[in-house]
Design a protein that fits this description.
mainly alpha; 5 helices; single chain; 2 domains; 76% helix
Length: 146
Amino acid sequence: MSLGLPFILILLAGIGIAVQAPTNAALARTSGSVLLAALVSFVVGTVVLLVAWTALDRTAPAALRGAPSWAWLGGFYGAGFVAAIAFAAPRLGLATALTIAIASQLATALALDHFGLLGLRTDPVTIPKLLGAALVIAGAVLVRRG
């Protein structure tokens, strides 16, 4: 597979993450509850995925039997992120909140890749990767101070 489709999909996903934060923050502001806003986000997402799975995939749920125990935690992390960004974006500003999130994601990704954790192939940390991560972190500081 060429880089085209994965690049376009992740580009659109990044746009979605940026738009999701103020969308969920508006729900939280209206309802007075970050947790209710996050719940609504996940319910809507679950319905969308259920429709897509029913229409396009239909892999039997039994196929999940062999999944490692840690693989079931993705929804936990996602719920935490959705609730945290809905809370943080109105307080820190969307750009700052997302920059901090991206910096922490990048640092974690470097460690996961380096050690080949959670089923990833080993991809050692290099000086250029560390410099790139440092630039992102510096960017987070600049965006916050901006």
